Amino acid sequence: MSGDTFPILSSLDKPILRESVKAKAKEVLNQLPEANFQHCFQQCKSRMERCRDRQGEYIEGEKSCYWNG
Questions:
Q1: Is the pTM of this model over 0.90?
Q2: What is the domain extent for residue 9?
């Protein structure tokens, strides 16, 4: 991260910032019903598999397929 781009963030103590982000993410994830989390996880897994199978080729309706392989 460039100090010029994010001067406020670059002045923060990075380990503390990282821990607060991890704590907030954990808090939010723990509030999700398990069924919702499982559904989202399976959708993400399915999209990644389709992206892999097509070697990153664009899939109509899916704008999140990038391949570095």
A1: no
A2: 1-31
